[in-house]
Amino acid sequence: AKLAGGNQAAFFDATLAETAEQRRHLENDLRQAVAQRQFSLYYQPIADLARHRIAGAEALIRWHHPERGLVPPDQFIPVVEQSGLINEIGLWVLDSACRQLAEWQAAGCPHYLSINVSGRQIPDGLPPQAVAAAIARHGIAPERLALEITEGILLGDIGVARAWLLAVQQLGVRLYLDDFGTGYSSLSYLKRFPLDTLKIDRSFVQDMQAESSDHSLVEAIVAMARSLRLRVVAEGVESAAQLQMLEAMGCHYAQGYHLSRPVPAADFAEVVAGIDRR
Ligand code: C2E
Ligand code: CA
Ligand code: CA
Ligand code: CA
Question: GO terms for CC (predicted)?
Fold first, then answer.
């Protein structure tokens, strides 16, 4: 992703923040960003393919840098994770998402909302009690909130990860497995962990053509998930043809630029109304 502001981009690319000095500079800016609340959440709609309407959204963090403008997460989340700032930012994301859910609920709009949780936050950065507290503080229905985790969390101490997942599930909050297919996917995880939904990584969805191997792969994932009573979201849907294929496969949900890019909260209702009218 390119940063608005051209040649400043390299500075913020976490993979390029290689020297100790660049790192320190970026970390300082991020500390200030936390203190000055320079973050916001954007919302990308997720469509229910059987009902032909928007079911909810994924919340995606954005950094509004005072000089450099909008910075996408790939350019700062890795540094945030390594510096430990992820815990504070993660709690802010949780609180903001719950506030948004409360707003939708008050408006009579029964959307689901998922947030991204980094493996670094588990278990102590985002304790299940903090999730319970946010739900109570905003008075939301817990089943409207979902936490997106990746297979990476299962690489550490599996017992710790499993205990955390079970405690979150006990709250009534949903658990999505993000970027499915890119990690060390072991089918046994799907049975051993209390997951509600698989999100098929966009790399598979984007390369889907009729009769291609990625088409067969996505079809097989959908069939397997359905037989395990998991729901499936296809990510990165960029064309009507992909949407149609996914619907034919029995995939439950779709998300991608074809429906909408992630948008600020203020634009969300209008975007949803536009898609639902299609
Ligand atoms: P992700 O969780 O896999 O999120 C989906 C990414 O794909 C988003 O990028 C989204 O804008 C992009 N996307 C959606 N539809 C399409 C499409 O049709 N085509 C293409 N090419 N891309 C599409 P974004 O917002 O830049 O976020 C990148 C990553 O940063 C996320 O990947 C997630 O891993 C991380 N991230 C975002 N927000 C948070 C957060 O609040 N906390 C943590 N820990 N990580 C976050
Ligand atoms: Ca995600
Ligand atoms: Ca993903
Ligand atoms: Ca990702």
Answer: membrane
